[in-house]
Amino acid sequence: MMDSKAQLTVDIIAKVVEGRITIVNAAKLLSKSRRTIERYVKQYQQVGIQFAIHGNSGKAPLNKTPESIKKAVQVLIKEKYFDLNLLHLAEKLETDEHIVVKRETLRGWAHDIHHVKRAKRRRSNVRKRRERMEAPGLMMQMDGSPHLWFGDRKHCLIAMIDDATSEVYAEFFPSETTVGCLQVMRDCIETKGVFKTLYVDRAGIFGGPKRCNFSQMQRACEELGIEIIFANSPQGKGRIERAFDTFQDRLVPELRLNNINDIAAANAYLKYVFIPQFWQTKIQVKSKQAPEFTPLSKHINLDDICVIKDHRKIRNDHTFSYGNKFYLIDSPLKHSITNQKIEIRNTSKKGFTAHFAGRKLKISEVNEPSKLASVVVN
Q1: Residues 205 and 317 grouped into a single domain
Q2: Does residue 134 sit within a domain?
Q3: What torsion, rounded to 10 degrees, do the Cα atoms 112, 116, 120, 123 define?
Q4: Angle between helices 86-95 and 238-257 (to 10 degrees)
């Protein structure tokens, strides 16, 4: 079967052979060169109207992927890689299944079985692009992302990303808590040093309107000389928001394929596999200037800063209450410190310690005698 274009070509060339149209006019009608028209005339005289049909018409291309590979890939998409995007899918097929397929070919195969992971698209306001910071350590962005990362329960990924290089520090926690935020910030400081500013949303953990007077993160940043900057919109801290999109798109399938269902294994995979092998090689970028991190002073102990601090009033008998229990100060004191405020430093792993004027105090729990049960006389 010939299409309309081929039929027109045959009709024009036939008229040229019959002498009804000149070669010059035929070239204009078909938008071809004179040499091409002469070649068409010669082929028409030899094989007839078949000259207008391409020689490869109806034949399978030599580089066509076998149908068996197509069906095998479609089965893998349905049963194993159903939640991967096309780029991620092509990488997993090459590394794990040893099947190399071009991206557009893979797209067509996925469309045939209606398995294409589409990006979320929402209408947004026009916003001006903000350039990256010039040097690492000038600004860190921090946030938490509750999600079904692994298993059937939601966990929170708390992450901190450098605005200049997209270097990331992240860890899974049962929920977004102050302890988790302090832990991620401490990992960054121990690795790189003290950064200049922390860009966060107006959540209470970071000292937002609801907890502006007793935020532990705000207090820790003040002690370290870090300034907290509050974003007026989620788009303001777009670096960390887009990072979470990438984590949800890439990390969730990876955890599932590696049969990871607990928080310890997920943190180990995140820290030792995902971030070094994927994030640092494909997402992280080079900075324009030298790092601006400040080395941690020898006189600063992060154990005294990155903890939950509280205060209690000392009673006349040098006792205080904490956690529905009474404690007695056993450390020798030169002067009475009654009615003074004692500082409680609570670490979830080691319990808590009591401090006064920078000095750690020895304390012991007060065991009060239990009351006698009242006897009911009939």
Answers
A1: no
A2: no
A3: -20
A4: 40
The arrangement of strands across the sheet holding 155-162 comes to 168-173, 155-162, 139-147, 197-200, 227-230
* Residue 302 located in a structural domain: no
Q: Burial level of 287, CB count in 10 A (0-12/13-18/19+)?
A: buried
Q: Is residue 297 part of a domain?
A: no
Q: What pLDDT digit, counting tens, does each position of 322-343 carry?
A: 878 888 888 888 788 888 888 8
Phi–psi pair at 252, nearest 5 degrees: -60, -50
Please tell me the predicted confidence (pLDDT) of residue 244: 94
Token pair 């509280």 in the structure block, residue:
310
Could you list the beta-strand ranges (E) of 164-285: 168-173, 197-200, 227-230
Q: Are residues 168 and 235 in the same domain?
A: yes
Cα–Cα distance measured from residue 305 to residue 186, given in angstroms and rounded to the nearest whole number? 9
Length of the chain: 378
Contact in structure between 36 and 26 (CB atoms under 8 Å)? no
Q: Are the beta carbons of 289 and 135 closer than 8 angstroms?
A: yes
Given this model, what pLDDT does residue 252 score? 94
Residue 106 and residue 184 share a domain: no
CA–CA dist 184, 159 (Å, integer): 7
Q: Global pTM?
A: 0.70
Write out pLDDT tens, residues 30-80.
Answer: 888 999 999 999 999 998 888 888 777 777 777 788 888 999 999 999 999
- 212, 218, 223, 227: CA torsion to nearest 10: -100
Residue 129 lies in a domain: no
